[in-house]
């Protein structure tokens, strides 16, 4: 069991931020990554559709013998985490990207104001304010949907004048005034972390959950004593619909290791 792979999925390239953090922390672990590019972005899809997509990908990762499934997407974590846990019925571990961030924020920002930016699906679910408030009622949480960011990043528009204009327009909104920290509640957003840091000029703490999720995965595998410390890892990356921009962006995280293969997951569904 310890040599079985870690399964990770997202709607596109965003989950690669999580995959890279897991690979850095757990270099002996094999990884199977699925980017559901045929259905991106998840942020404007209904909860029912997201759950359907998540179950389809989970079926594939179960077939491949994954010992843990990491939902490396905030929208899918918001709408499909509980259904997927019920669906796998204890066969494998399941991790999400929201709980580790909520726990970290609740400990570090007592009586502070925290902003959350993400897709419409994540923000409309209200999951971050709900989880943070449950852990620490004295934190003020304000949220803003930023629907243009994930598609912009998927198309390779980041670290340029276009992305800077869009990002600054969102971050300048009234609802984010006076915040002490901001949660990047979309795994795509670390790709624009530099521009977000430049906007705030160090005045607030910028949280992305990738490293926290990696530590959560490590803890879960360690608890069951199924960490792999022996074999050379095998890294596999799949997309449900191939795009040039995905491959270009993917090499940002795994410059020498990544090879994309198309996974015809939905053609007979």
Primary descriptors:
single chain; 269 residues; alpha/beta; Rossmann fold; four-stranded parallel β-sheet; 42% helix; globular
Compact description:
The protein has about 270 residues and is of the alpha/beta class.
What would your notes on this structure say?
The strands form two sheets. This protein has a six-stranded parallel beta sheet, sandwiched between helices. It has helices at residues 16-25, 47-63, 74-88, 99-108, 120-125, 127-135, 149-154, 161-171, 193-200, 210-223, 244-250, and strands spanning 6-10, 31-35, 68-71, 93-96, 113-118, 140-145, 181-184, 205-207, 235-239, 260-262. It folds into two domains: 6-96 and 211-262, 3-Layer(aba) Sandwich (Rossmann fold), CATH 3.40.50; 99-209, Rossmann fold (3-Layer(aba) Sandwich), CATH 3.40.50. It has eleven helices and ten strands. It is globular. It is α/β, with parallel strands linked by helices. Helix 1 (16-25) links the parallel strand 1 (6-10) and strand 2 (31-35).
Write the layout of secondary structure elements.
Blueprint: E1 6-10, H1 16-25, E2 31-35, H2 47-63, E3 68-71, H3 74-88, E4 93-96, H4 99-108, E5 113-118, H5 120-125, H6 127-135, E6 140-145, H7 149-154, H8 161-171, E7 181-184, H9 193-200, E8 205-207, H10 210-223, E9 235-239, H11 244-250, E10 260-262
Parallel strand pairs: 1-2, 1-3, 2-9, 3-4, 5-6, 5-7, 7-8, 9-10
Helix pairs in contact: 1-10, 2-3, 4-6
């Amino acid at each position: 069991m310890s040599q079985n792979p870690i399964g990770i999925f997202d709607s596109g390239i965003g989950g690669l931020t999580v995959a890279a953090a897991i690979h850095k922390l757990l270099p002996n672990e094999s990884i199977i990554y699925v980017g559901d590019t045929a259905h991106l972005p998840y942020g404007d899809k209904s909860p029912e559709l997201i759950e359907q997509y998540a179950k389809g990908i989970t079926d594939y990762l179960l077939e491949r013998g994954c010992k843990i499934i990491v939902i490396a997407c905030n929208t899918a974590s918001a709408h499909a985490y509980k259904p997927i846990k019920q669906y796998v019925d204890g066969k494998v571990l399941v991790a999400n990207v929201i709980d580790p961030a909520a726990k970290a924020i609740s400990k570090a920002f007592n009586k502070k104001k925290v902003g959350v930016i993400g897709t419409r699906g994540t923000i409309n679910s209200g999951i971050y304010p709900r989880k943070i408030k449950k852990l620490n009622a004295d934190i003020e949480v304000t949220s803003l949907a930023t629907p243009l960011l994930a598609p912009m990043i998927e198309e390779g528009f980041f670290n340029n004048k276009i992305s800077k204009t869009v990002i600054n327009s969102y971050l300048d909104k009234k609802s984010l005034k006076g915040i002490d920290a901001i949660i990047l509640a979309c795994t795509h957003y670390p790709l624009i972390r530099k521009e977000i840091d430049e906007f705030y000029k160090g005045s607030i703490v910028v949280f992305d959950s990738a490293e926290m999720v990696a530590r959560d995965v490590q803890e879960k595998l360690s608890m069951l004593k199924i960490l792999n410390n022996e074999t050379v890892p095998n890294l596999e990356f799949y997309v449900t619909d191939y795009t040039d921009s995905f491959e270009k962006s993917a090499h940002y995280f795994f410059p020498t290791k990544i090879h994309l293969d198309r996974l015809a997951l939905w053609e007979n569904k």
